[in-house]
């Protein structure tokens, strides 16, 4: 049976579907005419430059030009801007040099040289990271993987895909689509981020619920260590129990242990049919009931379960400037995706789920995509929230795991605290514009965003360490998917024990004794 939303009064199709908005255009064309981002060293003066690191000399630049061609050694101030400033326009370094190697050998030669000279290095992928990890804090050299962008091989029987770390996620997925496969990770920054960057931060994304974590799907890595040693474990093996699984250490290490140059990953067959339902709900309790019911009734075809609150959709309305999928506003919205191989079966399951959810009062309204364009548009009302949250000028981002029952409580607590401090309001007198909550309910992962008109110490002090304490008290993690970077380096203790932190520091000292890889971050 076909899902026909128009046959049910409650499921009206009201989306404006003329444009495919899935990839994020702003990422490619950030405007630098806007006000200048203060240097990280000025905003966070308590972090001092490590004087053990050498200052870059013209001799060093000359050596880099011997390893790379001239055009792949950037030193012009305008060329450096993109690489020095992060996506949130919150952190800015003052690197004087960006290196763009094309081969693993070149990465190895660069790191060997930098290690010997004690030149600090920041590995950088698409620079879409959200914790200030991808940009220098001081004058570290940026090692961009953007020119390492070749697909190495694909086995269309096993689904094992090998590619350079600098391949853009969307390009990797498009390549796989032609072979009937899918990349087991999808996220809003797919048009700019690199697969190496994804692995380096162990990105979770929109379909972790279906495809699991990169710790499971990555089969092997090629990594260059700080001293230039190339460690090649680009396996084509699904199972391999010979010794420690060393690649796991680099997944989520955020460029602090080695530079990832190659990725071998297991890719599943691309689902042939996809449905999206966009629903309005009256309470966070209803969101939880809806999730339980979706798991029970949609079972194996459920591929995403995302939620957004009304504040996040209100900002999205202002940003997207199109008609919202639902006519009425609701305190909460849920986006459900199903993916499968039998359209009739999937449609029937979704229809039953929607009917039951409406009948028992869990869902108040909703709409279902009828074609590919509508599907992308509905997704954009979820994915576009990241960009919408920067509409005022900046955003404090907290990316947390909390047991589901308490998940939204953090948004309410943060909102209340900012209101009490008189920091939030409708006019320019207030630094905070809005507090929003959205995220991957299916993974117990909330994104608390505090959209601001300007970054201020007053707001930051009101939120930190309050947010981290709240998470710790509720047995959560301060970093569900974005990592620690510069933002959370002082707060790891809220989630990890002393002995875990000790082990992390020992590993760092072992792999990078001079500490040249992504300093001032992580721990
Ligand atoms: P970068 O930002 O360049 O780097 C991130 C970190 O990895 C840095 O510490 C850097 O030093 C290190 N690094 C990068 N490349 C390498 C390498 N080759 N070797 C070693 N270290 C390296 N994250 C999620 O988990 N889920 C989401 O749903 C999600 N959605 C996003 C949506 C938007 C709009 C944006 C802007 C970000 C989103 N993110 C999400 C954040 C996310 O982690 C990144 O977008 C992505 O994974 C980072 O990849 P990148 O290539 O841009 O890495
Ligand atoms: C998301 O889920 O949209 C991302 O992790 C990015 C964000 O938090 O904005
Ligand atoms: Zn996310």
TrEMBL record:
Transmembrane segments: none annotated. It catalyses: (R)-2-hydroxyglutarate + pyruvate = (R)-lactate + 2-oxoglutarate; (R)-malate + A = oxaloacetate + AH2; (R)-lactate + 2 Fe(III)-[cytochrome c] = 2 Fe(II)-[cytochrome c] + pyruvate + 2 H(+). It comes from the Eukaryota. One of its GO terms (cellular component) is mitochondrion. Residues 91-270 form the FAD-binding PCMH-type domain. Catalyzes the oxidation of D-2-hydroxyglutarate (D-2-HG) to alpha-ketoglutarate. Also catalyzes the oxidation of other D-2-hydroxyacids, such as D-malate (D-MAL) and D-lactate (D-LAC). Exhibits high activities towards D-2-HG and D-MAL but a very weak activity towards D-LAC. It is an enzyme of class 1 (oxidoreductase). Its cofactor is FAD. One of its GO terms (molecular function) is D-lactate dehydrogenase (cytochrome) activity. This is D-2-hydroxyglutarate dehydrogenase, mitochondrial. PANTHER family: D-2-HYDROXYGLUTARATE DEHYDROGENASE, MITOCHONDRIAL. GO terms for biological process: lactate metabolic process; malate metabolic process. The keyword Flavoprotein applies. It comes from Komagataella phaffii (strain ATCC 76273 / CBS 7435 / CECT 11047 / NRRL Y-11430 / Wegner 21-1) (Yeast). It is found in: Mitochondrion. InterPro entries: FAD-bd_oxidored_4_C (IPR004113), FAD-bd_PCMH (IPR016166), FAD-bd_PCMH-like_sf (IPR036318), FAD-bd_PCMH_sub1 (IPR016167), FAD-bd_PCMH_sub2 (IPR016169), FAD-linked_Oxase-like_C (IPR016164), FAD-oxidored/transferase_4 (IPR051264), Oxid_FAD_bind_N (IPR006094). Belongs to the FAD-binding oxidoreductase/transferase type 4 family. Keywords: FAD, Flavoprotein, Metal-binding, Mitochondrion, Oxidoreductase, Transit peptide, Zinc. Its EC number is 1.1.99.39, 1.1.99.40. Signal peptide: none annotated.
């Amino acid at each position: 049976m076909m899902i026909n939303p128009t046959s049910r009064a409650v499921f009206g199709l009201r989306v404006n579907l003329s444009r495919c908005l899935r990839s994020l255009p702003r990422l490619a064309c950030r405007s630098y005419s806007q006000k200048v981002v203060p240097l990280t060293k000025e905003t966070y003066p308590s972090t001092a430059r490590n004087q053990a690191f050498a200052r870059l000399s013209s001799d060093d630049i000359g050596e880099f030009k011997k390893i790379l061609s001239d055009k792949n050694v950037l030193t012009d101030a305008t060329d450096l801007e993109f690489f020095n400033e992060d996506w949130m326009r919150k952190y800015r370094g003052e690197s004087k040099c960006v290196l763009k190697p094309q081969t693993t050998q070149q990465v190895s030669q660069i790191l060997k040289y930098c290690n010997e000279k004690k030149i600090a290095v920041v590995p950088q992928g698409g620079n879409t990271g959200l914790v200030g990890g991808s940009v220098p804090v001081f004058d570290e050299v940026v090692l961009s993987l953007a020119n390492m962008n070749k697909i190495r091989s694909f086995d269309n029987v096993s689904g094992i895909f090998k590619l350079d770390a600098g391949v853009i996620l969307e390009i990797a997925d498009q390549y796989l689509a032609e072979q009937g496969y899918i990349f087991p990770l999808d996220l809003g920054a797919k048009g700019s981020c690199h697969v190496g960057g994804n692995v380096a931060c162990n990105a979770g994304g929109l379909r972790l619920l279906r495809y699991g974590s990169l710790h499971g799907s990555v089969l092997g890595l090629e990594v260059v260590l700080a001293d230039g040693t190339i460690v090649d474990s680009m396996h084509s093996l699904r199972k391999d129990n010979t010794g420690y699984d060393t690649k796991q250490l680099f997944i989520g290490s955020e460029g602090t242990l080695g530079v990832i140059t190659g990725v071998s990953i297991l890719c599943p067959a691309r689902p042939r049919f996809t449905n999206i339902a966009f629903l309005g709900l009256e309470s966070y309790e209803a969101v939880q009931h809806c999730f339980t019911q979706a798991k029970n009734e949609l079972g194996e075809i459920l591929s995403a379960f995302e939620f957004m609150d009304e504040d996040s959709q209100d900002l999205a309305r202002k940003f997207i400037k199109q008609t919202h999928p639902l006519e009425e506003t609701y305190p909460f919205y849920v986006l459900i995706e199903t993916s499968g191989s039998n359209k009739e079966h999937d449609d029937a399951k979704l229809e039953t789920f929607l009917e039951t959810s409406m009948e028992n009062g869990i869902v108040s309204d909703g709409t279902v995509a009828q074609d590919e364009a509508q599907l992308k548009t509905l997704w954009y009302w979820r994915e576009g929230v990241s960009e919408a949250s920067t509409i005022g000028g900046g955003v404090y981002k907290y990316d947390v795991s909390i047991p589901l029952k308490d998940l939204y409580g953090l948004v309410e607590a943060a909102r209340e605290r900012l209101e009490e401090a008189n920091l939030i309001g409708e006019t320019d007198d207030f630094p905070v514009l809005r507090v929003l909550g959205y995220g991957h309910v299916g993974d117990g992962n909330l994104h608390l965003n505090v959209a601001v008109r300007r970054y201020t110490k007053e707001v930051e002090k009101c939120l930190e360490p309050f947010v981290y304490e709240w998470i710790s008290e509720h047995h959560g993690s301060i970093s569900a998917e974005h990592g620690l970077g510069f933002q959370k380096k002082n707060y790891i203790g809220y989630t990890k024990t002393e002995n875990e932190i000790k082990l992390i520091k020992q590993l760092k000292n072992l792999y990078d004794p001079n500490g040249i890889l992504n300093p001032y971050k992580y721990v």
